[in-house]
Write a structure and sequence with these properties.
Elements lengths: L5 E11 L2 E8 L2 E7 L15 E10 L3 E6 L8 E3 L20 E3 L1 E5 L2 E5 L1 H12 L4 E7 L12
Parallel strand pairs: 1-10
Antiparallel strand pairs: 1-2, 2-3, 3-7, 4-5, 4-10, 5-6, 8-9
Amino acid sequence: MNENKKHLVLTRMETSDEGTFGKLRLGGLRLYSGELPWRDNRTSIICIPPGEYECEPYSSKAHSQCFLVKDVPGRTGILIHTANFVGSKPLFRCELEGCIAPGTGRCFLAGQDAVVSSSAAMAALKNELGEQPFILTIVDQTGGRAGGVLNE
């Protein structure tokens, strides 16, 4: 992958039926992340495997301006887009189908953990990344419970 591209790092910190929560880091920008829990790589109901992915700005009918995460094994249409609720259906509310939601914070909202101010977080990412492709690195620090492997 191109070393000249910006690198967005997502570090998964904890996971439960309410979602997989972590932190996003891009240079000096610090945000939170929300994803679905890991469920043995079953399409549309789990977070994507840890690893390194190329991403690019993308225009989605459902999510407007967002970012496309490319070449996810066994998956298509994985986006970084606005959302607050990332829990395991049908137990909890969820606005994702395997995608990644950024937030400026995390809180207990409507009876479950959630990321908040996702629109502001997307605006901050767009401001930092512009219209250029970038690299997303996902690291699991949940003890292997969010992606099946533990990255050191």
